[in-house]
Specification:
Elements (H helix, E strand, L loop, with lengths): L31 H25 L1 H17 L3
């Protein structure tokens, strides 16, 4: 997909011992922005993996869609 530029650059994750401040190497004081970035990357990768699985196993994807539709039809508010 053309909007996925994060694959082109090497992994920008912070590694222990490599960073602007040596006392932040254990990861306990990571910022909320960094945590959100890592979470967003994880969710993008998870969605990509699901799409790949659905393409590779269309029968399983179809049954999962049908099961989900049945659950939504029988759900009581």
């Amino acid at each position: 997909m053309p909007d996925r530029d994060f694959r082109n650059d090497p992994s920008p994750r912070i590694r222990p011992g490599v960073g602007p401040e040596p006392d932040q190497t254990d990861g306990t004081d990571e910022s909320d922005a960094e945590r959100r970035r890592r979470r967003a990357r994880f969710l993008r990768d998870l969605a990509e993996a699901r799409e790949l699985r659905d393409r590779v196993q269309p029968r399983r994807a179809k049954t999962a869609r049908l099961r989900h539709a049945m659950r939504m039809r029988t759900f009581r508010w």
